[in-house]
Fold this sequence. Notes:
This is TetR family transcriptional regulator. This protein is an all-alpha fold. The chain has helices spanning 3-41, 44-51, 55-61, 65-83, 85-90, 100-117, 119-130, 137-160, 169-185, 187-193, 201-219.
Amino acid sequence: MTGKNAVRAGAASRRMQNRDRLEADIAAVAVRVFAECGYEGTSVAAIAEGAGLSKQNLMYYFPTKQELYARVLDGVLDDWLERMSSLAQAGQDDAPAAHPADLLRAYVQAKLRFSREQPYASRVYAMEVIGGAKLYGDQIRERVVPVLKRDIEVFERWIAAGRMAPVNATHLLFAIWAMTQSYADFAAQMALVLDRRQLQKKDFDEAEETIVGLVLALIQPHGG
């Protein structure tokens, strides 16, 4: 590569990095606004104002509100599925054997950590699903369903090997999702009941202890 070409390539790389960084900043503002106002109640102008941009400038990067919404939900699923990968990885043929209790404890911990660290992301996803997943249903089917099926297969192998009590694996995962995600989606209600402004780390620690206890009691093999 000649000197001029190297300079051009370096400039192009910097422009791309700057664009990626700006788009990530816009998405970080958008996830909060979508969580607070819902898709229909959110305006591009409000997101642009929060990001310190003009509406026209924001729309250069995201020409429509739906494109920005999809970018936000893509990021939510990227983060969520990355944190939830432990069970699927345990089911790989070359994965070392691990105790189901340890893996499920880690799974619950990861789900609660997501609720604590990314409450807006959890709420945006929940609102989309509650609304019938009209704008993002195809992506959920393509990305979430295969992971769910792999996790179920892991559970079924554990059950067949006598390492886990025979339970409905699908509904076990649904129950774990409901218990852990509620600490983001219904945090305001929980804080009101607990008479505090917001949930604290100790609330999540106590939630983890309770949820893990319930799950492990359910999967304990008979006579184990």
